[in-house]
């Protein structure tokens, strides 16, 4: 049997059992809206799924039953025993079809017309009699002119409230289902038991180690293995990539597209993001529902889209990612967006808020009304969706697992739902370390390697002025001391410690800890709300020995220390006084200071340097007046910053800064390495001297900022971009707007190197002048912080109209936090990329330029 | 069961049934913090624990003593002395007791010097905070009871957990 069908059967059988009980409850307490919603929801789900599976007989019956329930829910029809009987009849009919399906894989033959007619009569007949107020939703479609049937076709339910469906279930020859469902509690319980078992095992192992040749040793070893396997097994049952939940979506979207006469592109990113299977189960239906909603309500018809100046094909984008202790799933479309005016009207007509309240509400708040039960702005009730069962169910399901859902919508531009689910059940492998007398867990995923420093023959911690660095395989790593960072007293001497080499995005740094214990599989639990502001931790957990331990967030550490990532401290200052002349970038960047040629210190971002080398004078060769060195099996050109290199005057060991890209490398010869500092760069007087971007003041001294791109060019024309690389960019024309010459000089060569044709300007006004002048580009990359008009304003201006309206627009920023991304999206940016992250920028460009969105 | 609770307006006191008291009483667990007698409504209490191993949480607000493991759930411990700006317990003190309360699905433990008894107190006898009450206490007090010579301060759990 088809997986889909098997799933459906399992689900439907569960639903039917629940329905029997719920309907009986409803009959006794007709005003119980919670029960009514539950009944409606189950019937709606069955109808929706069988529509999708092409089970027409079942769909027709379910649809008719849903019509009656819809009227109950809208309050336009009173719940009656006769009505409930008819619905129970429909449930029995569906149950019969399900049994047939299970046996043969196809719907059995049968005649449902009388049942459907009777249901429609209930819906139509009594509604006409009651009709106290007009139905808020459109009337049910295809209302037949059938005579009013009153007599129940099925015996009234004389079933006791407990175990109502037992007999029915026993009667059917149910084939054993292919899957069984286990509640989260059962798995949680298993997990706890396994943890306890592991703990006990560890204690036993400890005991057996103490008593030398115990007879228990062998069986204990076996117990230990089995325990580990069991632990692994239990964990494995719980983790799945989210792609599993998405697997059915392309087909669904395709079919919906055909059915609705729309062209829909589905884009899925982050399918490999793993999450707990039970969480996955719980979000699967809501996700499907949201995609269905996007296709049905979100996207316009091709004609409408063309009329609105959009590409004919609509886009639905799914994006999943991990963030701290959460998984973020975004479901976005580029359709018509929410009609805020219509929502307002509906809110008023349903009496959910007064006009004054509405007027005072920000648009965001108004949009949130779509999460209320029974709230749908779809004008037509279609078979696909549109009974308003959607978003309230989605929200309820998300909240049940401790998640949140948000909506962001811009009329005419699209709607995005952002679902945030905690990783309450997610399990990660973590390294347990100690710093300042406390233990912490570091998720293994960010750990590149462990280095013991201090001991004999081990690498040594070095200090360049006050900052500790580690020279690891000739690469210079910035270090942070965990105890210091967390304000703990560090008893152990830093010189005899461990360095946990950690990678966050493109940045590698070392975390100094006092001791390293073991790795352990841990269950990530979110921290208490009063601790959420401590960004250094992504959660906490209970270890095998029963103690509570905090889980470190490498992202938070990187942010707090300014390693690679940037802080937003410059914000107020930026708004206040603007230094008009100085090209500034507010990020704190780790800079390597060195001396070369003259006495003025020079600086280069540490992130750009691949390694530091000390090359012996004898190894430096001279080829056609250019110094070279054999380096890692290749000849590496060396460029002296002082302009010339004289072997006779050179020191015995020549310090070299190595820059590399792919398998190419180039060395810059300097006189002396001075320091590593973290500085906010404010560069004055750009490009006064070739090879330097300008000067800045670091530690009270005027320092020249190295123009890396210029020096790389000195190493030879072909340094940037091989032929293969060049093909990637294939001559697409890009516009880069970036005020800081420093970053401009990083970005432009990086893009040029892979074959893009790049034009760079320093501010938004200049970019707009280019637009007026008729310049044409295929994508625009813009910094956010610009003098005068900022990136957001520029994006809005571009999106308003003009020749560049539909161009992909990529924001380049030092800070990536969700609020900024949201802001950027709202302003019209297609994507958000961190400065320095060359790979991400290229990736984003590739995505943008191949996507069909460009018009 | 369900029909019973839906018709009877009285809250859980009756449903528990075990405490021999009448509905006009509030039941408190008494505890002391720096010699001051306090009461926490028993209905707010999930558990009372002896001295626990508490993991310190760096960078947390000063009131947070750390976190502890309560049968597989992580409980955030709030030191009542620090919460109230009182001096720390003396060196010789045996260690703080944990009174575990729940708020928005999260468990918190209130660390007190000592835990006393469960005490039913007539609701009508609860007095508003006296004006002379130390401002440290006034913030978190939900009224006071006079017990012989001593004053029992009724702790408002919501407010004591409002940190930061």
UniProtKB/TrEMBL annotation, chain A:
Instruction: Write down what this protein is called.
Output: histidine kinase
Gene3D superfamilies with a match to the protein in the record: 3.40.50.2300, CheA-289, Domain 4, Histidine kinase CheA-like, homodimeric domain, Histidine kinase-like ATPase, C-terminal domain, HPT domain, SH3 Domains
The CheW-like domain covers which part of the protein? 427-563, 588-717
Biased segments, Basic and acidic residues type = 571-582
Extract the ranges annotated as region (Disordered): 562-582
- Look up and give the organism this protein is from: Belnapia mucosa
Q: Which residues form the HPt domain?
A: 1-104
> What's the EC number here?
2.7.13.3
Q: Which residues form the Histidine kinase domain?
A: 168-425
| Keyword field | Kinase, Phosphoprotein, Transferase, Two-component regulatory system
Q: Which residues carry this modification: 4-aspartylphosphate?
A: 783
From TrEMBL, chain B:
Domain CheW-like positions: 25-164
* Domain of life, source organism: Bacteria
Database matches in Pfam families? CheW
Annotated SMART domains = CheW
The protein depicted here goes by the name: Chemotaxis protein CheW
């Amino acid at each position: 049997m088809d997986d889909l069908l098997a799933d459906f059967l399992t689900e439907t059988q569960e639903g039917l059992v629940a329905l029997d009980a719920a309907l009986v409850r409803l009959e006794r307490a007709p005003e119980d809206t919670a029960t009514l919603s539950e009944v409606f929801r189950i019937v709606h789900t069955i109808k929706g799924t069988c529509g999708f599976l092409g089970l027409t007989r079942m769909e027709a019956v379910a649809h008719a039953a849903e019509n009656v329930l819809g009227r109950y829910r809208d309050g336009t029809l009173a719940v009656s025993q006769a009505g409930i009987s008819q619905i129970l009849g429909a449930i029995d009919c569906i149950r019969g079809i399900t049994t047939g399906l299970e046996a043969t894989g196809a719907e059995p033959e049968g005649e449902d017309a009388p049942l459907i007619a009777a249901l429609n009569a209930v819906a139509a007949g009594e509604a006409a009699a009651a009709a106290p107020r007009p139905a808020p939703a459109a009337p049910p479609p295809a209302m037949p002119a059938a005579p009013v049937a009153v007599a129940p076709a099925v015996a009234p339910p004389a079933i006791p409230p407990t175990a109502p469906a037992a007999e029915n279930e026993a009667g059917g020859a149910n084939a054993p289902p292919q899957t069984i469902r286990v509640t989260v509690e059962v798995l949680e319980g298993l997990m706890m038991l396994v943890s306890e078992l592991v703990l006990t095992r560890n204690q036993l192992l400890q005991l057996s180690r103490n008593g030398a040749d115990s007879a228990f040793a062998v069986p204990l070893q076996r117990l230990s293995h089995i325990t580990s396997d069991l632990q692994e097994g239990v964990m494995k049952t719980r983790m799945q990539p989210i792609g599993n939940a998405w697997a059915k979506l392309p087909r669904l979207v395709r079919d919906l597209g055909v059915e609705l006469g729309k062209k829909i592109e589905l884009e899925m990113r982050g399918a490999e993001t793993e999450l707990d299977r039970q969480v996955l189960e719980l979000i699967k239906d809501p996700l499907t529902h949201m995609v269905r909603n996007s296709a049905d309500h979100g996207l316009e018809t091709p004609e409408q889209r063309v009329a609105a100046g959009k590409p004919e094909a609509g886009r639905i984008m799914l994006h999943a990612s991990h963030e701290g202790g959460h998984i973020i799933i975004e479901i976005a479309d580029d359709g018509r967006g929410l009609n805020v005016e219509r929502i307002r009207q509906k809110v008023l007509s349903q009496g959910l808020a007064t006009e004054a309240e509405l007027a005072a509400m920000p648009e965001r708040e108004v949009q949130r009304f779509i999460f209320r039960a029974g709230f749908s702005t779809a004008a037509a009730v279609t078979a696909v969706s549109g009974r308003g069962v959607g978003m309230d169910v989605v929200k309820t399901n998300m909240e049940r697992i401790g998640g949140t859902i948000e909506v962001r919508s811009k009329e005419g531009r699209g709607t995005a739902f952002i679902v945030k689910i905690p990783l309450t059940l997610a399990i990660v492998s973590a390294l347990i370390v100690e710093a300042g007398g406390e233990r912490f867990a570091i998720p293994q995923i960010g750990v590149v390697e462990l280095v013991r420093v201090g001991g004999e023959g081990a690498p040594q911690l070095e200090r360049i002025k006050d900052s500790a660095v580690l020279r690891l395989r000739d690469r210079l790593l910035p270090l942070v001391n965990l105890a210091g960072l967390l304000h703990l007293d560090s008893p152990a001497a830093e010189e005899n410690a461990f360095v946990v080499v950690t990678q966050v995005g493109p940045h590698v740094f070392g975390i100094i800890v006092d001791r390293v214990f073991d790795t352990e599989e841990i269950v990530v639990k979110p921290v208490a709300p009063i601790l959420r502001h401590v960004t250094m931790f992504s959660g906490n957990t209970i270890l095998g020995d029963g103690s509570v331990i905090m889980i470190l967030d490498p992202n938070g550490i990187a942010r707090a220390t300014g390693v690679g990532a940037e802080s937003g401290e410059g914000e107020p200052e930026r708004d206040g006084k603007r230094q008009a002349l100085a090209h500034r970038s507010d990020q704190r960047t780790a800079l390597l200071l060195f001396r070369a040629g003259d006495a003025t210190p020079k600086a280069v971002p540490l992130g750009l340097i691949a390694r530091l080398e000390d090359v012996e004078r004898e190894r430096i060769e001279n080829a056609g007046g250019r110094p070279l060195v054999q380096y890692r099996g290749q000849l590496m050109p060396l460029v002296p910053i002082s302009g010339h290199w004289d072997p006779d005057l050179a020191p015995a060991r020549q310090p070299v800064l190595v820059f590399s890209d792919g398998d190419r490398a180039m060395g810059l010869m300097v006189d002396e390495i001075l320091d590593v500092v973290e500085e906010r760069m404010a560069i004055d007087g750009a490009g006064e001297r070739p090879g330097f971007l300008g000067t800045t003041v670091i530690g009270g001294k005027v320092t020249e900022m190295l123009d890396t791109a210029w020096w790389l060019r000195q190493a030879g024309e072909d340094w940037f971009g091989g032929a293969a690389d060049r093909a990637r960019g294939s001559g697409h024309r890009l516009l880069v707007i970036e005020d800081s010459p420093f970053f401009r000089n990083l970005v432009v060569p990086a893009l040029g190197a892979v074959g893009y044709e790049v034009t760079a300007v320093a501010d938004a006004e200049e970019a707009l002048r280019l637009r007026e002048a008729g310049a044409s580009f295929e994508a625009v990359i813009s910094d956010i912080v610009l003098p005068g008009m900022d990136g957001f304003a520029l994006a809005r201006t571009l999106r308003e109209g003009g020749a560049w309206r539909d161009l992909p627009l990529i924001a380049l920023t030092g800070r990536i936090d969700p609020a900024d991304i949201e802001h950027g999206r709202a302003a019209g940016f297609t994507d958000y990329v961190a400065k320095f992250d060359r790979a991400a920028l290229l990736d984003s460009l590739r995505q943008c330029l191949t996507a069909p969105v460009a018009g | 069961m369900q029909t019973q609770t839906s018709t009877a307006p009285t809250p859980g006191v009756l449903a528990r049934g075990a405490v021999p008291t009448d509905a006009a009483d509030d039941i408190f667990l008494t505890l002391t913090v720096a010699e001051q007698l306090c009461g926490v409504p028993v209905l707010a209490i999930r558990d009372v624990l002896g001295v626990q191993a508490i993991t310190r949480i760096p960078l947390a607000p000063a009131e947070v003593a750390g976190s502890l493991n309560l049968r597989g759930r992580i409980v955030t411990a709030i030191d009542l002395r620090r919460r109230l700006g009182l001096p720390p317990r003396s060196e010789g003190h045996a260690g703080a007791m944990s009174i575990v309360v729940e708020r928005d699905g999260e468990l918190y433990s209130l660390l007190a010097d000592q835990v006393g008894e469960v005490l039913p107190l007539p609701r009508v006898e609860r007095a508003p905070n006296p004006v002379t009450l130390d401002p440290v206490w006034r913030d978190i007090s939900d009224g006071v009871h006079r017990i012989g010579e001593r004053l029992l301060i009724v702790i408002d759990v919501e407010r004591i957990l409002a940190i930061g």
